[in-house]
From TrEMBL, chain A:
Organismal lineage: Eukaryota, Metazoa, Chordata, Craniata, Vertebrata
The entry's keywords: Calcium, Cell membrane, Cell projection, Cytoplasm, Cytoplasmic vesicle, Lipid-binding, Membrane, Metal-binding, Protein transport, Transport
Compartments, as annotated in UniProt: Cell membrane; Cell projection, Ruffle; Cytoplasm, Cell cortex; Cytoplasmic vesicle membrane
Gene encoding the protein: C2CD5
Domain of life: Eukaryota
Chief place where the protein resides: membrane
Polar residues bias locations: 806-821, 957-972
Any one Pfam family match given in the protein's UniProt record, by short name: YbjQ_4
Region Disordered, annotated ranges: 806-839, 953-972
UniProt-listed GO biological process terms: insulin receptor signaling pathway; intracellular protein transmembrane transport; positive regulation of D-glucose transmembrane transport; positive regulation of protein targeting to membrane; positive regulation of vesicle fusion; protein localization to plasma membrane
Gene Ontology MF terms: calcium ion binding; calcium-dependent phospholipid binding
Record-given protein name: C2 domain-containing protein 5
Domain C2: from-to ranges: 1-109
CDD domains: C2_KIAA0528-like
A GO CC annotation given for this chain: plasma membrane
UniProtKB/TrEMBL annotation, chain B:
Originating species: Esox lucius
Domain of life: Eukaryota
Name the UniProt record assigns to this protein: Fibroblast growth factor (acidic) intracellular binding protein a
A biological process term (GO) from this entry: platelet aggregation
Any single GO CC term annotated in Swiss-Prot or TrEMBL for this entry: nucleus
Amino acid sequence: MPGKLKAKIVAGRHLPVMDRASDLTDAFVEVKFGNTTFKTDVFPKSLNPQWNSEWFKFEVDDEDLQDEPLQITVLDHDTYSANDAIGKVYIDIDPLLCSEAATRICGWFPIYDTIHGIRGEINVLVKVDLFNDLNSFRQSSCGVKFFCTTSIPRCYRAALVHGFVEELVVNEDPEYQWIDRIRTPRASNEARQRLISLMSGELQRKIGLKVLEMGGNAVVGYLQCFDLEGESGLVVRAIGTASPNTNTHSNTAPASNACNSPSKDSKEATWAMFKQPVLDISFPLIGVLNNQFRHFLFLSVLSGMGSGGSAGKEAGPLKTLLRQHTQSALEQREFPFFTLTCFPPGFLVHVGGVVSARSVKLLDRIHNPDEPETRDAWWEEIRQEIKSHAKALGCHAVVGYSESTSICEEVCILSASGTAAMLNPRFMREGCLDAGGSDHRLSRQPCGFCHIPYDEFNMPFPAQLTYCYRCRRQKVPDVLFTTIDLPAEAAVTGKGCLIQARLCRTKKKAQGEVNATAISNLLPFMEYELHTQLMNKLKLRSMNALFGLRIQISVGENMLLGLASATGVYLSALPAPGGIQVAGKTPSDLNYDQHIATMQKRINDTITKNKELYNIHPPESTEELVGSPIPDRQRSRLFRSTSESSDELLELDLSHGKKDAFVLERGSVTMSINMFVSSGFYSCNTEVMPGIYNWTSGLQMFTSVRVYRLSNANLTNQGLNKIFTELCENLLKSLYFKLRSMIPCCLCHVNFTVAVPEEELIQMGAVRLNCVCVCGCVFVCLFVSGSGENEDQLQFSMELCADSTPSNNQPTSKPSVSSAERCSPLPEGRSRSLRSTRSMPCGAPVAVVKMTPLSFLPGTRIVKYLGIINMFFIRETTSLREEGGVSGFLHCFIAEVFAMVRAHVAALGGNAVVSYSMKECVFMENPNKNQAQCLINVSGDAVIFVRESEQEATPPLMSSGQISSTGADGTT
Amino acid sequence: MSMVLDVFVGNTTIMDMDIYQLWLDGLTVREAVKARMDQGALLECEANAEVLMSDTMDQFRTFQLCERLLHSPTKLANQLLFQIPSQHQRMLIEKYYEFDSVFAREVLGKKLSKGTKKDLDDISSKTGITLKSCRRQFDNFKRVFKVVEDLKGPLVENIQHHFLLTDTQARDYAAIVFFANSRFETGKRKLQYLSFQDFAYCASQLIQYWTTGAVDSMVEDMDVDLEKEFLHELKDLKVLVNDKNMLDQHKVLVCAALRGKIKVYRLMEANFKVIEPCRCDRWTLGEVTLFLTQYTNAAHGLGTFSRQVVWDRYMGVIRSCILRMYHE
């Protein structure tokens, strides 16, 4: 179905000098969409051309509108030789296809060249006229809205959450085509950028179609990834959660939680299939299948299980019914997955724990780009695995779901993880949310989600259960790990903090299948050790739950890196964690015993200190409610299985619950004790910092990238671990130092990414390692109340300044001469001109665009979502040294990427990007040839926000009240 | 293990003005780190040398990337690459165009050419300002000079408009441009004791009253070139010195007016040579003021003297310049 795309080229500014002779440029512009190209006239001899072109009109299918970007090329006209390209602008016109989003794109865009970076700016105006499409066999999906935000966007209400949508497209990477040998780097980069832009457009369209089929109208938590598989091609995949969002104005808050307990009667054990203890986590299934290695791992850690037997007596037949309904509703879907991490209140009934699966694959060439079946099948397997794990935990859904890959040459690790959970069935049924409040009689509990969803007697793994410390009726696990954000209703004691586990494992350099086998053999041990580290650090901080857990395992030529980050909190509903005990391997030696004793003391001191630091003072419970229902027989079996789990360094015993004895070996103790603490700084990787509620609107988003080179000498496991830990700690320290002017502040949504880039030209004795990339966002949160007064004072003094300036600037000051002796025949006009205050130059200053990885901006209200920003850039240089080395090059490139994102948002009429993330940052260098190349993929949601008044700086949590208020004010 | 790459980029560009000053002073990263350590930067945030190094490198890199924009400050406000709050922008520009008056004094009156640039290392060693900083200051002078050279309108305003400087800074730059253009011999031994600020004041006086722009405000170079016609007219004033009769008459009048007020006075041979004799005799500033006032007024009393307007224009500037220059 046709639509009409109109574009107008208005002007350019700050263009580079293209003609050395005249120091000027004869610029003109080519506007291309699909196969149609228009040109403007040449504007001779100017660095600030005014084209003011006519409207260029493209009549195209809306399918193309979704797939293709508008391509604007600025060139320098040359009479005798070929025209030189100055640079390009790609404009994604997708936001214009939704009736509610932006209406036009208009503004200054940086002109970008993959070799030279930003070279001037161009002012463009774009509009789309869309005709209604009534064809039911259409291939386009205009009108489906996409959000990167992993919660229900602030000015919308979800009428119904459908569930998981996924799609994957593959193509050959232009960088590896034969033609790349003869074309210029610029042409090859541009081909790549264009292809990826096309592919992501196509991907969005296909996902949109799926959503329409399901009856939805939006995708939230849209996550798109590129797998640069090198020789074997390029894969773009995306997952999201389909849901029809309504922009309703109704003030009815979504109804409260319907079930506060799982139905006790339905112990059909359909969802407790795995009975073996999961804590010896690994059961690698390695099978050779078409030259591909499969390895699945199940890490579903420590969540409680078994529904609390006698509790919840009020569970009536109604709830059984509800439950059955949920199950059937969800089981109809292939994958009951949700990419959301933050939910409307009452959506989550119970949370089981983290489920994850990994698989090692050997890549082969993609033969037919139109049938990406192999890749599809891989992910299908993993998702099935996740689904079965969730089932084992007694959960029918997975929330906070994400997928990732790590590729090194032809080996690829596919990982998926999420949190098993039970959801409120009402959100699955049509119209339920709108009806609202039909089940109000069931009160919502702040501890509900902590209660175990599984059957106590069919626990998939050993865990210590206690009665909930809040309601005292349901069972809760001793520790809870999740990948989601802290639910708004959760009761927390004290503050949270960032907890990281870091791990390096060396492996032999190998090829093909041998390599893949080696990796899959290592994986389970890494998972186990990461988990142990997390556990220890959690206990050391005397916390009992992890949120936003993200485990990244990346593969390099001769090592594997694991990095787990999460935000630890003390959930009031869960029991207090036990202490940590140090045990030596040879307890006979007296000196050694002393050493152990001091160690133990240090640990205890640290725990006490941390309790102070994070303000954790749980109410001491005198009555011991712990009743472990696990029969002794079973328990002994658990002991056996853990000791069999074969890690000689660490022994972990989780079966003691409250009086937990954590047995640690010395090395790991020092590692975890020596953590860096800086006053006034808090950090977490979730959206909001648990325990801190007074945010100010000061906001600073940053990206930091570091690359280290390791020498071969210390390539032992322990040496590497030490180095890796130091790197991470140093990076955090650096960040704190950089942002010291913002104290007290909190680093939110800190997102660590590690990679072990492959290096083809390894210099003797040196291997490239870790590219640690942090993308976070900093808030200033003032703990002092009455910040408004300060502001007033500041304003006052500024006014004073403004008053005093003109009087200081009297034209001449002759202190010794009285005014009567004025000997100046000076024209009065001149003195006036001297006195004139400075004014900023012609042209309005650039509008400020805020960027944040969070889904909200503190102290503000988002009034409109303008569309998704999804951009891919390549930058290459052949004069690395001249650009200030690798750091200078990358610094400039990242700044350029920010600039382009800001320009696009501003052109859409927005003033902020929320849910911003840098998905990909691949850096390659060749210092010998003075070359470097970098690829960056960023995404986010363009929004318009308005400031709330200072008083209303409420915790920007996803509370029901806020939803209704934003819904009421939402624009149409 | 070594760090190959270390980058920190904020959406809002973070700039530490203390480090900016170190950068402007032409310090290397290593020197800057040392300077910051001496200032006690390590006490903040439990930083260590490594952190400080990385932070300094990062800031220096940011400034380097910004430097291109600072060359044409008007671009800074509407460029898209860095998001810098406007008060920071103003500060960046202001500090970038700040200069050491010691350095300015050395360069004053010299031609802003490549040749002078080569002599910068001499000036650097003489003044103790790093060569890098000297280069920046010199390039700033040159850049401002180049831009304003062919523009119409008042000099100070042009500088302000194109470089967004503060009033005082713009005036100082105007003085530099003025001297660079007319190349007064400011390097004379007798004038060594005068500071840049003295000259800047004189320049502003000259610009205000003696240039073409003082009469007509729409001429090219109006504030740079002295008005030719006025210079011609000045020749007529020489009668005061050359004509014996007139000189005597003038002397008498001045002496009469001053009698009793100044203990020691000498007959002035020529009006240009006021300062030195006065300095020799240790006149007070008040006495000099009085003398000059009478000297000016006395001319009016000369019946045969016809060029009153030119005389006032001439003496007005001379008077204020002399007063300014009259110090130790």
